[in-house]
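Justification of resources, computational component.

The compute hours requested in this renewal are based largely on the per-chain cost of generating structure records like the one below. Each record pairs the submitted sequence with a full structure-token output. That output is archived, and it is also reused by downstream analysis tasks.
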Amino acid sequence: MSKYIGLVLPSAPNYSETFFISKIKGLQDAGHKVVVFTKASDRKFTLCSVKIAPKVEKDKKLQQGIKLIFSIASLFVKVPARVLKFIKLNKSEGNSWKRTFEDLYLNQHILVENLDWIHFGFATMAIRKELLAATIGCKMAVSFRGY
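The structure output for this chain reads:
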């Protein structure tokens, strides 16, 4: 049975990053759909689709606030049940409203996907994303490699 797998990385893998390239190719060869979620991409990556995280502009607080409001409103339209579940889970962890809305903004590119699995390529990539799997209703994996 084919799965939709999201791989969360700091950037789309380079040709020299054989672990991730092999992982993506192996999953695709097994019939699975793979998407890479990343903070930035400065080049073309054609092995699978790449979804870029929304930008945070710390020096432009008004513009950032407007982007946050429109992004969360858009999420409410696209996936209202997930937004409410994410808020409930975030608040049950004792997070402030400010952090909850920031996390919604930061993770919007992932929350709209109907993933079966989300895999964090590095443990640091899971920070502030710990509740995504429960919100989406998918399984989660984290690689403990590197530094």
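Residues 30 and 62 are 46 Å apart (CA to CA). The helical segments are 18-29, 61-78, 80-92, 97-106, 108-111, 132-136.
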